[in-house]
Amino acid sequence: MTLAGLAPALLIGAGVHRDDLPENLTPPSYRVSMPIPTAPQAAPVFPAPAALTATVASLAQEFGGVVGISVRSLEWGWQIDANGERRMPQQSVSKLWVAMTVLDARDKGRLTLDDPVSITRDNLTVFHQPIASLVVRDGVYRTTVRELLLRAMQSSDNTANDRLLNLVGGPQAVRAFIAEKGLGESRFGPGERLLQAGTAGLAWKPEYSIGRA
Fold first, then answer.
1. Is 34 helix (H, G, I), strand (E, B) or coil?
2. CA distance linking residue 145 with residue 138, whole number of Å
3. pLDDT tens digit string along 99-121?
4. Is 78 inside any structural domain?
């Protein structure tokens, strides 16, 4: 049979089997109801252990300087603070904010972890910066965003962190990231040079960057 001969049969078949069309179906005699989920109940917050509360207060009182202590139970919800409302310098904890901002920029396609980055003497900071020896030895150290992240997070390298900070747009970019993600009231400082020099009671000078190289 030719294709022309098959055409009428196909048309007849298409016209016969119309029972499955929506307008030809019999409405069901039952109704399905879907329960609306209720909002999750807040977990109860248990009181903090009295002995631990007393210990934290005693530690803060006997420290002999300005100190802030905060302990929070993720399981039971209680929190103990001593001078907990006072803002304290984050020191190297601030490297986490920089790393998160870098990874966010990567997720948004603004950079990749394999992007090349060069570090010269002009990029050196102060105090703990193991990467400085490589820069001083060769005049320039060529690396990647990935390696700088590893050095900043694993070795707490101030220069690696500061280079990443400048790469993503400086302190304002980190502050914008913290606000965008709703990460609380944490503030971010001016970068490694001004922060570390200020911690030591000094005004930043470029010659400070070579001291540990």
1. coil
2. 19
3. 999 999 999 999 999 999 999 99
4. yes
